Automatic annotation (TrEMBL):
Protein name: Insulinase family protein
Cofactor: Zn(2+)
Record-annotated Peptidase M16 C-terminal domain positions: 195-371, 682-840
InterPro entries: Metalloenz_LuxS/M16 (IPR011249), Pept_M16_N (IPR011765), Pept_M16_Zn_BS (IPR001431), Peptidase_M16 (IPR050626), Peptidase_M16_C (IPR007863)
An annotated GO BP: proteolysis
Gene3D superfamilies reported for this sequence: Metalloenzyme, LuxS/M16 peptidase-like
Keywords noted in UniProt: Hydrolase, Metal-binding, Metalloprotease, Protease, Signal, Zinc
GO molecular function: metal ion binding; metalloendopeptidase activity
Family: Belongs to the peptidase M16 family.
Organism: Campylobacter corcagiensis
Signal peptide: 1-19
Length: 915
């Protein structure tokens, strides 16, 4: 089974060379604005636009710390052509889902404004007009400035956490002697609170200039038309040249050990970072050098997987290059820490490092990694025509920021293939030695409590460890060495409206297949049977059985051996269990369909619990639990869960006693009870493969699964969340904030397709009203969002959950605000325009979703699982259009039942609880 390495895929897919992708048009207006156009029809009529300003927090003066980020916020508070409300309404009219972090971000070196739209009517021109206003026409009205200060202070509080504090402690080591260590984008709240329009405008006019900006447009559009729109909206903007300072980052050139610690973190680690020079991927040789680095990353992942699977180590190891803004590179080895034993992690690193320095990587490991990397390269090329807009935007941003060359998918594939064919084991071993001989090594110890590991202790551990054993076991070429005969389906149907094939086999298995090529070469699947947590007596036992089995390998082979046997094959699947169902989910490439089916066939007949993985998982679970019990969010969740379910034993979190009582044999028996019998399953596949080829495989591997037809059902175990009105508060947070949830429950809203979509639209209107009142007008929160849930089984009920982080003394006011807004909706909301904006956003979302195989898979599963009506795109759009303000009023009155409300708050530990 192949676990796709996302980092490597992203890094290797767009490797750069000398020839610019001919589909990328790069043009410059007379005022200096550069714009990049890339046509991509993977999603019909979908267009993504980015305005990139080459300025961020590292460009601030000492008295401007936080102003780059503040400017980004103020851009949405009113411009020359749009008042504050008009700007947001303009975005919503385009189908843009507006909210914090969705439309803009500020970093150390850049600020980005982003809009995703449907290309219809005048949308493109309007979107460009909005971006031109955000970039060059912001007003900075004093009245809006004061309200936004509260939002930014709330955002700062919202970001505070143990990991944030650890990151801030690490800055002097990552960014030695540089401006970066003094310029976190969120800034200095004293400066934010005292900021004036003049201070904001000074930064804005200094850096928001056309020659310091780039416009990126990717999607389904006409280049000639959009070029004309760009000239109209940006061509008359005057600007001046921007002077940018150099921002070097220093080198230590020696071993430096530091400890960043905070009691609220959960994940502890030891990291060895070898200082190196940044390598821009702008020549064949540089590309080759970086490919060696990614190759080493794959090899270290394989070694770690092998040591864990064989029971040689509990510690997870990883290697990756860390680029520090094109100034410096930190080639990082990261190791987990188990049971607070930091010296064991140092020893694990030393064992691997010493073994590889003395003996190098093995030939077998090298070949397995090459097979994987070549498969990922081929996959990237074959699926390139279905890549989404954001993928290309990320590459163009990298092209702009790193001054590299943007390759076409074909050139990228051919260059990568050539390099991978050229690379030898000696090349990789030599590169590894080159990286690890660096005199500059930064050792970071990330811990809950202060640690005192010294440089001398690390060197002594390295001196005394035994080097890694690099021997390899001989393994077969396949997980299933059998030729299964075809079993023809006993029943075949075709839904000509939705183009879905259904096959039923003699063993009772039902298979549904939809051919869909919007994700090229890829097929998604879900195999489920009815009955999840509510059908079984012990939830935690089922969860542990599933999780351990998913890491235990397949058949007689452990996880590393499976990874080795299936090297170069791209597929994955795992078992799942939730409230109402259990089964398998995953995906595969069309070329690896038979390998997927073979692996699935073996696992289905004999789901396993591997001895080593079982022991490791228990040890790691106990270690995680011990750390979690000291973590404020987990402590709160643990106690709230017991409160919410009135102390019901079945719903309790797993504790130490339960984990220690787990028995491997019992878990294997439970797995067979839960997941066997194909006759109880619905198998659903959606993707890019022909129906006849799919049926051939399904007839061999699903048709031959053990099973007999049996009905299944979703049982109601009678367990309910508490009814009535309640407050639940605890003082566990180290930050001076309150993390809050409002849960409104109703039994009065029955599930229908119309009620479901009406509840979504009602919640969208609710979110807009909460944002306008509580965030924009009052400045009390950074973000506040409601999420709806309308359940069919095991029982009918609607839940609307509202999440926000606030000042401790404002949480009750905000609850009153939320309740007042809900009561307003219940009384009869009159703004037809706001409802239409919510409809537009939903219709744009549906148009994108119905082009996605994963969305079809979800809809097909829900239809079969809950027996609900399956609506296609046209029917869904018609239903959205049918929702009226009267429907919003009716849904609000049924869903927002303040007789059943739970308000939970995790509060700063030094606050006084008065309720």
């Amino acid at each position: 089974m192949k676990r796709i390495l996302i980092l490597l895929l992203l890094s290797l897919s767009p490797l750069f060379c000398l020839n610019l992708d001919e589909n990328l048009s790069v043009k410059k207006l007379d005022n200096g604005l550069t714009y990049y156009l890339y046509e991509n029809s993977a999603l019909k009529d979908s267009v993504s636009l980015i305005l990139h300003i080459k300025a961020g927090s590292s460009d601030e003066k000492d008295n401007e710390r936080g102003i780059a980020h503040f400017v980004e916020h103020m851009a949405f508070n009113g411009t020359k052509d749009f008042s504050k409300n008009e700007l947001i309404k303009a975005l919503e009219s385009l189908g843009v889902k507006f909210g914090p972090d969705l439309n803009a971000m500020t970093g150390f070196d850049k600020t980005i404004y982003k809009i995703d739209i449907k290309n219809e009517g005048d949308n493109l021109n309007t979107a460009l007009k909005v971006l031109a206003n955000l970039g060059f026409k912001v007003k900075f009205e004093p009245k809006d400035l004061e309200a936004e200060k509260g939002v930014i202070v709330a955002e700062d509080k919202n970001r505070q956490s143990g990991m944030q504090r650890v990151f801030e402690q690490s800055l002097p080591y990552y960014y030695k002697d540089s401006i970066y260590e003094k310029r976190l984008p969120i800034g200095d709240m004293d400066i934010v609170r005292s900021a004036t329009s003049e201070l904001m405008r000074g930064f804005y006019e200094r850096y928001y200039q056309p020659d310091n900006a780039s416009l990126i447009v990717v999607g389904d559009f006409n280049k000639t038309q959009i070029s004309d729109f760009i000239k109209v909206n940006f061509g008359d903007i005057n600007g001046t040249s921007v002077k940018k300072d150099d921002k070097p980052i220093g080198y230590f050139n020696e071993m430096v050990v530091f400890n960043a610690f905070d009691k609220d973190i959960t994940n502890q680690s030891v990291n060895f970072m070898f200082e190196g020079n940044f390598i821009p991927e702008n020549s064949y040789e540089n590309i080759k050098e970086m490919t060696k680095v990614y190759y080493i990353s794959t090899l270290i992942s394989l070694i770690s997987n092998k040591r864990q699977s064989n029971g040689d180590s509990l510690i997870k190891s990883a290697f990756y290059p860390m680029d520090l803004y094109n100034k410096k590179s930190l080639n990082t080895f990261s190791l987990s820490v188990v049971d607070g034993n930091f010296t064991a992690s140092v020893a694990e690193f030393s064992t691997i490092l010493k073994g590889l320095r003395e003996n190098g990587f093995s030939q077998n490991l090298f070949e397995n990694a090459k097979t994987d990397l070549k498969a990922l390269n081929l996959t990237s090329f074959k699926t390139s025509s279905s890549r989404k807009n954001q993928s290309y935007i990320n590459e163009i941003l990298n092209y702009i920021d790193s001054n590299t060359t943007f390759l076409s998918p074909k050139d990228s594939y051919e260059i990568n293939e050539k390099i991978l064919n050229e690379l030898t084991l000696d090349d990789i071993n030599e590169k590894f030695l080159d990286i690890t001989k660096s005199t500059g090594v930064i050792v970071s110890i990330i811990s809950k409590d202060e640690q005192n590991i010294t440089k001398d202790e690390i060197l002594e551990i390295y001196k005394n460890v035994k080097p890694l054993n690099t021997s390899e076991k001989v393994l077969p070429k396949t997980l299933l060495d059998a030729n299964l005969s075809k079993v023809d389906p006993i029943k075949t149907e075709f839904d000509d409206k939705n183009l879905i094939h259904t096959y039923e086999f003699e063993n009772g298995a039902k298979v549904h297949f939809k051919e869909m090529d919007t994700d090229k070469e890829t097929v998604y699947f879900n195999a489920f049977k009815k009955g999840g947590y509510t059908n079984i007596p012990n939830i935690n036992e089922a969860i542990f059985a599933v999780n351990i089995s998913n890491g235990s390998g397949i058949g007689e082979f452990n996880d590393y051996e499976v990874r080795t046997i299936t090297a170069g094959e791209v597929f994955n699947f795992s078992k799942f269990i939730n409230r109402v169902s259990r089964g398998y989910s995953g995906s595969f490439l069309a070329k690896d369909m038979e390998s997927f089916f073979k692996a699935f066939f073996v696992d289905f007949h004999a789901p396993k619990i591997d001895d080593n993985y079982f022991k490791n998982y228990i040890t790691l679970s106990l270690d995680t639990l011990k750390r979690n019990l000291l973590q404020p969010d987990y402590k709160f969740a643990l106690e709230f869960n017991d409160f919410y379910y009135a102390g019901n034993e079945k719903m309790k979190f797993a504790d130490e006693k339960f984990i220690n009582s787990l028995d491997k044999n019992r878990l294997e028996i439970l797995l067979n009870e839960l997941f066997s019998n194909a006759g109880e399953y619905e198998f659903i596949f959606v993707g890019d493969i022909k129906a006849d080829k799919f049926l051939d495989m399904a007839s061999r591997y699903i048709g031959n699964l053990n099973g007999d037809k049996k009905p299944t059902s979703i049982k109601d175990d009678g367990i309910r969340e508490i009814d009535g009105t309640h407050k639940f508060e605890r003082n566990y947070l180290s930050e001076n904030v309150s993390k809050n949830t409002i849960i409104v429950k109703s039994y009065d809203l029955n599930y229908t397709a119309k009620n479901d979509i009406a509840l979504e639209l009602t919640t969208a209107v609710l979110n807009t009203l909460m944002r306008e009142k509580i965030r924009e007008d009052d400045g009390k929160v950074y973000g506040i969002s409601a999420y709806p849930s309308l359940s069919v089984l095991p029982y009918q009920r609607a839940i609307t959950s509202v999440y926000f982080t606030s000042e401790v003394n404002q949480k009750d006011e905000i609850y009153s605000d939320v309740k007042a807004i809900m009561e307003n909706l219940k009384a009869g909301y009159k703004d037809e325009k706001e409802l239409n904006s919510a409809k537009t956003v939903k219709k744009v979302e549906l148009e994108k979703n119905f082009q996605q195989p994963g969305f079809w898979l979800m809809k097909m599963v829900n239809s079969k699982l809950f027996g609900i009506e399956f609506l296609n795109f046209d029917e869904s759009i018609k239903l959205v259009d049918s929702i009226t303000l009267d429907d919003i009023k009716e849904i609000s009155n049924k869903a927002f039942d303040f007789e059943n409300v739970v308000i939970s708050s995790n509060i700063y530990k030094d606050s006084n609880l008065t309720n």
